[in-house]
Q: What sequence folds into this?
């Protein structure tokens, strides 16, 4: 299984907010309110609209633990549904089994919920499943 390699602390500092939900990274943002890396402390000009949209897309990708291919497939499904595409997209992402397990507080984080599902700890329609995206 492929997975994002960047550390969570760097992602939190990159986006300037805790995208993972748990309070573990709040202290990090208070201590180092600037971006990661050698040039993180410099002042930047205002980002373009494209940069803002890209950053929001990246936030959602990392928040739900998706790769680009999974994200695009979900977006295509959301486009085909009636209504606003962004709202449909978030509804589809919230329906994933790993996210439902996380929202029901069976797991402290989404990666932990994903692991519980992949280890066949849950039944869907009386069948054991190990696919987090169901």
A:
């Amino acid at each position: 299984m492929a997975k994002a390699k960047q550390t969570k602390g760097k992602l939190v500092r990159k986006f300037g907010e805790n995208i993972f939900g748990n309070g573990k990274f709040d202290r990090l943002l208070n201590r180092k309110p600037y971006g990661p890396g050698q040039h993180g402390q410099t002042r930047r000009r205002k980002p373009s609209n494209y940069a803002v949209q890209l950053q929001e897309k990246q936030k959602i990708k990392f928040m739900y633990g998706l790769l680009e291919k999974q994200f695009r497939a979900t977006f295509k499904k959301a486009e085909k549904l009636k209504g606003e595409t962004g709202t449909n997209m978030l509804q589809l992402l919230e329906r994933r089994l790993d996210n439902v397990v996380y929202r029901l507080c069976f797991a402290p984080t989404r990666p932990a919920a994903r692991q519980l599902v992949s280890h066949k700890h849950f039944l869907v329609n009386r069948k054991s499943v190990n696919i987090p995206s169901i």
